[in-house]
Design a protein that fits this description.
The chain is α/β, with parallel strands linked by helices. The chain folds into 2 domains: 172 residues, 2-Layer Sandwich (Nucleotidyltransferase, domain 5), CATH 3.30.420; 178 residues, 2-Layer Sandwich (Nucleotidyltransferase, domain 5), CATH 3.30.420.40. It contains 11 helices and 12 strands. A 5-stranded mixed beta sheet has the order 3-2-1-4-5, with helices on both faces. It has a 5-stranded mixed beta sheet with strand order 8-7-6-9-10, with helices on both faces. The protein has a two-stranded antiparallel ribbon with strand order 11-12. Helix 8 packs parallel to helix 9. The structure holds 5'-O-[(R)-(carboxyoxy)(hydroxy)phosphoryl]adenosine and zinc ion. Zinc ion binds next to helix 4.
Length: 361
Amino acid sequence: MIVLGLESSCDDTAAALVSRKPGEKPVVLSSVVVGQTNLHAAFGGVVPEIAARAHAEKLDLCAEQALSKAGLTLADVDAFAVTAGPGLIGGVLSGVMCAKGLAAATGKPLYGVNHLAGHALTPRLTDDVAYPYLMLLVSGGHCQFLLVHAPDHFERLGGTIDDAPGEAFDKVARLISLPQPGGPEIEKAALKGDAKHFAFPRPLLDRADCDMSFSGLKTAVLRMRDKIIAEKGGLTVQDQANLAAGFQAAVVDVLAEKTRRAMKIYLEAAPMTPSLCVAGGVAANSAIRQGLETVSSSFNAAFIAPPLALCTDNAAMIAFAAIEQSTLRGPDDLTLSARPRWPLDTSQPAMLGSGKKGAKA
Ligand code: KG4
Ligand code: ZN
């Protein structure tokens, strides 16, 4: 089965071809991602209308490029997959309409895929991880713990009630005058800082559940920054480094402790090959990876972090999710609709909050 996937739920326009032969491992034949960072740079966040227009302009070009990189034509494609939510509605609509056009013109099946399911199923694509596994999704838009039981069965153990960690990294970088995207900049600055110089809070650790909050931590950094500026008239490079290191250490501690709790719940069912998986741009952070790896090894579980290009938004994960789900369900028809909100686990109450990159699901 060869699937052409499309992704356009946030600020990356992506197309990819993924194939899987019966009994064999899936193969990413090509993956094209066109970012929009420069289009939104002046606005301090993703502008939904600008994003939607750019997706509409780029989707067909990305699809053409993905086909040519894979050395294929539309005739070789068995089905189309598209992110049908959750995300910024204009972008999701652009993708759904493009995919419907391709399906209608070729008479081939169409699969609407949940973007979060795409992220959550990626460890199956890259590492053939056995179900059930524990997934921590940490990006600029998402933050949740999922027990992945099957391609269409996700149990949410908890998530952020306000900002996603990547969003907090970006906001804190802005507060201390570091460039965007803030995550890698904070990580770099933190290397030269003393993580213990400032005592920042570890929000929600007093609550026994797996929910997280990063907004108060960001405010604590803001207060400390203002205090330093009031005392000294500005921030030195060392102040920046100490603030970055203190903030990052607090995020690592919160993620590690909440992961420990999620692992305990996961291991209650005694999985045969326990695995802790991560996805999302924040998983690029070495201190966070290290913290999570320490937790997983303390439980004798494998730690799986897909390569960054498949951790961040891409269309290979969408094509693969459709392949994985096609064993359990048929395709969608041309009434497929775009969903701004689409929780993976409908048995749980909705998460609060909606960040700069759209609904938290
Ligand atoms: O998954 P992603 O590419 O996009 C979505 O959020 O959908 O994640 C981007 C986020 C940004 O907020 C960025 O600051 C953060 O991931 N990020 C990092 C690092 N690299 C990227 N955060 C912390 N440390 C990093 N090294
Ligand atoms: Zn994403």
